[in-house]
Design goal:
305 residues; alpha/beta; TIM Barrel; 8-stranded parallel beta barrel; 4-stranded antiparallel beta sheet; 35% helix; 23% strand; binds flavin mononucleotide
């Protein structure tokens, strides 16, 4: 038997494989493909105080090794989450992290208080969505604003506080350090990379151009994520959850080697909806075959490489 479990503050995960916000629904939508309650955790779609319809027009653009999205935080809002989604998570015994986003500091405080009142064991602050006109991205790129936001959320929320960082910044190290100093329990990174897709059609002697500007995700961003994690792991001690183009066991091990304690799987869920469970099985098999009895043993050895 191998022990894949880990703990972030008081938040227990059976294994380090988590599904990323916005790519796995709210609760058990992937039940037909995967035993969702076997996952380390599911991160919910980003939740705001009020329901949001998201952006109008083209919202998805398929591109080399990934996709660009400009969904714009379409979500049911916190009340519907509590009334309709939370009971399913609880009934199905799914370990989850509530991803929250807001336009103002007050929005984040209110959401953190609601999470605390409802005894939600872990939240992930989205301070980094590139697809909304105002709000969370502004916190994610400014070290002082981020420090103040995380500090005040910390005062209002005692359980596991994870802050999700944007790659669209000049100094990853400064932002990660600010988040740690403000009292976060872990950092997750990266959110999507700002990108643009252009589709040109030549019709009746003229060009018709369609563009989608938004967040690039999938295999194409893995090198950006590896570099980001590698840099922040040198300046912070709190656990890092890696995100960005992860699809295979080799990807998971590479992220462990640069300092990640757990990983999130995003875009790969769309093409391989059973991928997260497969990665748990692959990791367990690798550890069994190579005599690693705990995740910690594996991560220590791989980080020395
Ligand atoms: C369609 C879509 C919706 C997303 N929605 C959210 C969201 O609501 N909140 C959030 O923090 N990240 C969101 N993300 C970002 C992912 O959680 C993840 O950070 C990013 O896609 C990189 O991981 P990947 O390359 O494995 O997809 C979304 C990504 C996609 C593709």
């Amino acid at each position: 038997m191998v022990d894949l479990s880990l703990k972030i503050k008081d938040f227990d995960l059976k294994n380090p494989i988590i599904t990323a916000s916005g790519t796995y629904g709210y609760n058990n939508e992937f039940d037909d493909f995967c035993e969702v309650n076997k996952l380390g955790a599911v991160v919910t779609k980003g939740i705001t105080l009020e329901p949001r319809l998201g952006n109008e027009g083209e919202r998805i653009f398929e591109t080399y090794g990934g996709m660009i999205n400009r969904i714009g935080l379409e979500n049911v809002g916190i009340q519907a989450f509590l009334d309709e989604k939370l009971p399913v998570l609880q009934k199905c015994n799914i370990n989850f992290i509530l991803n929250i986003a807001g336009n103002t500091v007050e929005d984040y405080i209110k959401l953190a208080k609601i999470a605390q009142e409802n005894d939600i064991k872990a939240i992930e602050l989205n301070v980094s969505c590139p697809n909304v006109k105002c709000g969370c991205i502004e916190f994610g790129v400014n070290k002082q604003a981020l420090y103040e936001l995380v500090s005040i959320v910390r005062k209002n929320y005692d359980n596991c506080l994870i802050v999700k960082l944007s790659p669209n910044v000049t100094s990853a190290e400064d932002l990660a350090t600010a988040v740690q100093s403000a009292g976060a329990d872990a950092v997750s990174a990266i959110n999507t990379v700002r990108g643009m897709g252009v589709k040109l059609d030549f019709i009746n002697g003229g060009f018709k151009k369609t563009t989608v500007s938004g967040g690039l995700s999938g295999k194409a961003i893995k090198p950006v994520a590896l570099s980001f994690i590698d840099r922040i792991s040198k300046v912070i001690d709190i656990p890092i959850i890696a995100i960005g183009g992860i699809c295979t066991l080799a990807d998971v091990l590479e992220f462990f080697s640069v300092g990640a304690k757990a990983v999130q799987i995003g875009t790969a869920n769309f093409t391989h909806p059973d991928i997260a469970e497969k990665l748990i099985n692959d990791l367990e098999k690798f550890m069994l075959e190579n005599n690693f009895s705990t995740l910690d043993d594996l991560q220590k050895k791989i980080q020395k490489s």
